Amino acid sequence: MSILKRKTETGIKTSELISALSKLRSGISTKGLIEGFGNYSLDNNFIRTYNDHICISYPFKTNVVASVKAEDLNAVLNKIYGETVELAVVDNSLLINGGNTKAGLIKTEGVKHIPITGEWKDLPEDFLQGLSLCSFSAADTMSMGILYCIYVNKNKLYSSDNYRISRYELSKAISDTFLIPARSAEEVVKFKVDKYLLDESWVHFKASSGVIFSCRIVNGVYKDVDKYFEIEGKEFTLPDIKKYVDSALIMADGKREFEKKIEMKLSKDQITLRGETETGWIESKVPCSLELEESFKVMINPVFLNEVLNKSTSIILSEGKALFKSENFQHVMVLSNVKETV
Predict the structure, then answer these.
(1) Rg of the chain over CA atoms, in angstroms?
(2) What pLDDT, in 10s, does the model give residues 291-309?
């Protein structure tokens, strides 16, 4: 392959390129069902990924135009020990040269790029915080329909899996309403987006760094759930249990952070926090004084629980339900009766 056929070349810090690619992994699918889903698309000043649900455009200057298999590029870069790497397009290949190593990757079908037209609108400063808190309460499977989503309704965010419901009131209302899959929301919060743009099929988020994160929206009608937050009952102040929640987290069942669960049991004289997996368990009992006639328990995500406790240690218990409530965030969960008098 003649060096004279080289179209473009650039020198890039290897560590910076690896770091940039790591931020794009959520936009990659390795299923291989559709051409382009498992690719990185280097597009001069951007690197893009697309998987039919998420499209990410990350600003990174490579000065080359080529789409290659993501797993191949990651593997090659992790075996290059030079501080810098040169990229070049020659014929139908992306050539990679760094340290004492050279590699060539065959170009593939380009990553689909979602066209964006319209005027960007400002997001409230606490939008990402609300999105993060509500992500924990959404259903974790698409079979649950719109419950797999977070409902963005102008000045409020809602989520539910039929056993728990979260509502977050934004500091400032936006002018649109849409449904965004919770798993897409989990990825959005990793970027410091501050603007958005809504079209017929996608909601696009933009950060001041130039990152554009596009999520396919879901069609559907979200039920009015505000009535479920109207709970009257005894209000209790929980003791400081955050360090014990962290302890239970080390044995929390679930692979992904948002899937982890621990058991929290409430009784009149103590709160029990237990994490258990196939390989072990850990349990902490925290003394307290709660005017309860029965014990209750709930399976809850420990990361989410600590986030809630950072906002409020007040809990209202009524007829098998618990309400955590702060100024702008409310969370209702169904409790299981332990069937023992305490």
Answers:
(1) 24
(2) 888 888 888 989 888 888 8
Instruction: Name the token pair of 282.
Output: 């850990």
Residue type for position 296: F
Start-to-end Cα distance in the chain: 80
Q: Is 338 helix (H, G, I), strand (E, B) or coil?
A: strand
Looking from the CA of 218 toward its CB, the CA atoms found within 13 Å total: 21
Average pLDDT over residues 260-288: 93
The pair of three-digit structure tokens given for residue 93, joined into one six-digit string: 């290949």
Whole-angstrom distance, CA of residue 78 vs CA of residue 68:
16
pLDDT in tens, 8-18: 455 899 999 99
Q: How, if at all, do strands 294-300 and 262-266 pair?
A: antiparallel
- How far apart are alpha carbons 204 and 260 in whole angstroms? 29
Q: Which of 117, 270, 136, 272 has the alpha carbon at shortest distance from 262?
A: 272
- Are 282 and 250 in contact by the 8 Å Cβ rule? The answer is yes
Domains of the chain with bracketed CATH: 3-106 (3.10.150.10), 121-223 (3.10.150.10), 231-341 (3.10.150.10)
Which residue, among 94, 90, 96, has the nearest Cα to 76 in the 3D structure? 96
Tell me, what's the pLDDT at 274? 96
Contact yes or no for 229/219 (Cβ under 8 A): no
User: Which of these, 77, 120, 123, 68, lies nearest to 101 by C-alpha position?
Assistant: 77
Q: Which residues contact 163 (CB under 8 A, 6 or more apart)?
A: 333, 334
Query: For the purposes of burial, counting CB atoms within 10 Å of the CB of 273, is it exposed (0-12), middle (13-18) or buried (19 or more)?
Result: buried
Q: How many CB atoms lie within 10 A of CB 276?
A: 16
Q: Encode pLDDT of 324-342 as tens digits.
A: 888 899 999 888 765 543 3
- With residues binned 3-state (H G I as helix, E B as strand, rest as coil), the percentages for the chain, rounded to 5, are 20, 40, 40
- Across the beta sheet with 270-277, what order do the strands follow? 280-287, 270-277, 262-266, 294-300, 336-341
pTM of the complete model beyond 0.85: no
Helix (H) or strand (E) holding 16: helix 14-22
Identify the pLDDT of residue 335: 81
